[in-house]
């Protein structure tokens, strides 16, 4: 996945994680500014396999209000009754979209997150992912062929395994450089115990105020690559 010519900024993410939604909105907002200079890579980290298990509705309902306050462009609405028991179809669909085109892949990644958090759609259903692919204008023959094969699931699980075993990813979102150095995305997480929010970390920024901090993540990826090139030339 490492491109020798363009520095990469990685985000290991899960689809039911509201913080990954916030991070995706911010990262994709800044991404066009670094076209051709830094490549944003969305990397799969399914928590039901490599983390804490499948989506926990009660915990998410405690988190989404705080996530909504931190990033107004990440739209959240109350969840509906049709609740996903898995997000693996979402991961598989995103992988299939990225096989068509990088920009379409990023668009589809964010489309899945908005479908879940803003539209209340069950992204654990394969039929819903196919509907989203059609709405996104993807090549449906190509998408369906990959989506119905075992190739997508294998790729997703392998990427998650790499995240956990090689890059020591423990939760989402985890932003890092391609050398494995972890970076901090500006978010204030709640401390939840026994179904109650006990406290919230200091809010580092909010909305547009976080875009400069997000831009700094891309800058770190760019500067790291330039340092590596300089050392190789010595």
Number of strand elements: 6
By DSSP (H or I, 4+ residues per run), the number of helices equals: 9
Number of domains: 1
Major β-sheet strand ordering: 2-1-3-4
Query: According to CATH, what is the topology?
Result: Glutaredoxin
Which CATH architecture is right?
A: 3-Layer(aba) Sandwich
Structural class call reads: alpha+beta
Could you explain the architecture of this structure?
This protein is α+β, with helices and mostly antiparallel strands and about 230 residues long. The protein has a single domain (about 10-234), classed as Glutaredoxin. Helices cover about 50% and strands about 10% of the residues. The chain contains nine helices and six strands, in the order E-H-E-H-H-H-H-H-H-H-E-E-E-E-H. Strands 2-1-3-4 form a four-stranded mixed beta sheet. It has a two-stranded antiparallel ribbon with strand order 5-6. Helix 1 runs antiparallel to helix 5 (about 100-115) and helix 4 (about 90-100) runs parallel beside helix 6.
